[in-house]
Amino acid sequence: MKALEDEPQLTLEACRGSEVAFEALVMHYEPRIRRMLYSLTQDAQLTQDLCQETFLAAVDSFYTSAGVWGRSFR
For the segment 13-32, what is each residue's pLDDT rounded down to a tens digit? Predict the structure, then answer.
């Protein structure tokens, strides 16, 4: 997997509510996460559900880390 050069900056921006930054992180990591989940489940629908749950957990984590509960992505 190609490295994401500005990952620290994107992560910081995502924590601050940037939808663009979060989307860039999702686009980078989703294929790898999806492959790993499918290798564990062998079920496409379950893989899709778990992948979505993974990124929802990331959003929760970003908000918790940044202390911005209640803010929405912009």
Answer: 888 888 899 999 999 999 99
